[in-house]
# Entry
Amino acid sequence: MKKVAVLIEEMFDEKELLYPYFRLLEEGYEVHLVGTEKDKVYTGKSGLTEKSTHSSKDIQAKDYSGVVIPGGFSPDYMRRTEATVNFVKEMDEQDKPVAAICHGPWMMASACDLKGRKMTSFFSIKDDLINAGAEYLDQEVVIDGNLITSRTPKDLPIFMKTIIEKIG
# Structure
């Protein structure tokens, strides 16, 4: 059974965490909610809480088929943890699907080489991606090799279809 990591941190966007989590389960993947700490309860932007199943320091990229990075303000917290950054970096280096939505590409800017890569995101972090070397496109989903990005919760259906196709 293929394993997929969905990253979680404080101030996650509930739709961007829960929709991918349940869609991936529905497809038959083993899905881990990976936080800075294992079994920690994280609070989303609207107050909903979810508990991590794994800690980023206790997992290895070689064991996963893909990673999903939800938005909200959680990616800013995620990238403060070296183990989480290293996990995403290793997933990218192993050419495995790294998918991020909304503010999720903030994490990619910290973990991946974005020079010349085509990407999208929530419009407010467009400059961050451009400054990291990415070519910004305003599209519902952008695929560049193993990187998959989308803009907002409205893009979740095509975002998830694309992730599921990529993971296989």
In short: The chain is about 35% helix and 25% strand. The helical segments are 14-26, 74-78, 82-93, 105-111, 126-131, 156-167.
